[in-house]
Every structure is written in structure tokens, then in C-alpha cells.
Protein 1
Amino acid sequence: MPQKSNTSDKTLNEDILKELKNINSQLLNLNNKIEESNLLARESKSNEDATRYTNQISEETKSFEPKKKATGRPRKTTVRDDRAMKDYVYKDHFETAAGISKKI
């Protein structure tokens, strides 16, 4: 009789070992899925950070974009406009020069 008990213990141990191997395999699969999920979460966060950074840069660079041109027909300049501009520039230049020379 002791042998019968021994064989039943042996089969029980084998069954337990098989079940433990099965559980171990399932745990490994779950662990791999968790790692994959974590990796995807990190990638997603990285993509969100990159998108946020890109949007921030584009907002900051909007001030450097050229202003939109006015639509419609441009105003023609006349000789009178050109002379007035020259007078203004020269007058401003001489007043500045005179102001500097007076201060000295």
C-alpha cells in the first residue's frame, strides 16, 4: 500500500507542477502585456508633450510672421507725396542734428 500512496503523491505533484507552469506562463503573458501598455502610455505622453511643445512654438512664432497685405488696389504715390516725405526726412534729420549741436 505505501507504493500506491507514493504514486498518487507523484501524480499529484506532477499535476501541481503542470498547473504552476501554466500559471507562470499566464503571468509572463500578463507581464508582457503590462510592459507593452506602459510603453504605449509613455509614447502617447511623449507625443502629447511633443504636440504641446510644437503648439507653443507656433504660438510664439506667430508674432514673427509677416502681416497680411491689405486687399484692394494700392494707393499711387504722387510727386507731392514724395517731396513731402523728403522734406519730412530732411527736416527731422536737421532738427536732430541741430538739437545735438545745441546740447554740445
Protein 2
Amino acid sequence: MKGLGIVPPNGIQAEATLEAPHDVDIATRPLAEAGTTHRCQGWEFDVVVFDMMEGDCDSRELWMALTHRHPGADP
């Protein structure tokens, strides 16, 4: 079991999240593991942080939620 897992919505945010601690900590080992939900699937952590991104929301960005709730839905 790993200590801390950070789950951001995409790979670019995961990379940025992993780089941030290096700005303040000089430890050679990572302070946490970070990856998308797909990458982290099956991993176990003592603590998990779900990292959300702030941004403008367009209804077209909700296509995944729409298609899962209403197959054939038009975004």
C-alpha cells in the first residue's frame, strides 16, 4: 500500500502535480504518486486526493456524463 495518491482529471495535471513538490522539497523519492483514474485503477493508498481543475464549463465537455446517463444523447 502506498502512502498518498493524487488523482487529477488528466495526465498533464498529474505531471504538474508531481513537479510542484520538487519546487519546495529536495527529497530524492516522490512525496506521492499521481495519475489519472485509469492509471491508478487497482492501486491502494492510505490517503487519496482527488485533484479538480478549475475552468469554464461548456455543455459539450459533459459529453461523457451525458452518454452514460442517456445513450444516444446529443451534447
Protein 3
Amino acid sequence: MSGYETARRIRELYPSSLLPIIMVSAKAEEEDIVEGLKCGADDYVSKPFKRAELAARIRAHIRARDAFAEQQARARLGSARWLAPPAGLWAILHRMQAADQQWLLQHNLLPRNVQRKLRNGETVVAEHHGAVTVLWAEVVGLPRLAAEVPPLELVVMLNSLYTSWDELCEEEGALGVDFSGSTYVAVSGHDDNPQHMELILRYVPPSVE
């Protein structure tokens, strides 16, 4: 499948307001750029490219997307509680894309014991924990909700939900490790806390509310 076809299919599933596409190609002729933009790309970068320039373009598109999402949320919901930028969901997406160790440290996305090792210059290897408790939470009825609620409204709703769960994790000392679609996974005991099960049990009632 060509890059043009890939962009076309992605755009059929997701609008630019939710998923910007930056096409990077060795083809630099005018007709190639025009074709890429016609297929749904929001930007087109020809190889060879400068890393700093590409990073700046990515940040610009992310800012534009977030601003558009906030504007649409205001228009659709008309409620002051939705005026905050939808940072939680996008932060998770950025976290998935981040490969830089310093970025992870700066945003406090790793367990504290792992952060200490990285800051001390140690090499982090897989660790064994004798006992942990894993919480698997699911948004019941999400497919039905997705069919009934406008996409941007659904994104804002999920953003608010996952952000609140992240905040609960931080308050209780748990660690949010993954979210995929309608599920959210948190773990306790990763820091060898012997009260890991009680910790998760304290987490559950407010997360349901």
C-alpha cells in the first residue's frame, strides 16, 4: 500500500481535527506534494529533512488540533467544566510516541524507583516483584456510546475520564500503566508496597463514581 493510499484510508477513519497527518517522502516534485495533500495529509515534508524542523511541524499541528478540539467542545457542550484543554488524552498519545528517556523523567511517567535509577545513570532492567495487584477497568457500553455521541464530544468525555483516573492513581500511589480503547489498567505493588491490594480497593469506589 502506498503512502498516498495509507493517508487516504486513515483520513476516512479520522478527521484532521483528531489525527493530523504529516507525510514524509523522498518525492519532492510539486505534483507529489499536491497528491499527498489531496489524499488527506495536513503537511508534506520532503527528504532529507531536518529533525528540528519536523519536530516543530509536529508540535504546531498538535497545538492546532488541541485548540480546535477545545473550541468544538465549548460549542457543543456549552459548559464551563469542559473549557480546560483536553490534555489528558493527548498526553497519553504523546507518551506512546516518546522514546526519549529525559522526556519520560520530566513528565513523571515512570515508577519512582525507575526514575531514581535513570537519574543515577543506572541501566534499568526488568524487575521482579513478589506480589502486585492489577486493576482492569472498562468503560461499559462504549461502542454503543460511540455510535450515539459526536466524535469530538466522545474524545472530551474520555479525556476527562482517563485524566481523573490518572489523578486518582497519583493520589493513592498506584501507577496507570496502559489504556486501550475502553479499558484502563493500573497496578500497585510495583514499589513493593505490602498494602498493594488495600490500595487498589481504596482506588475503586472513587474511580467508579
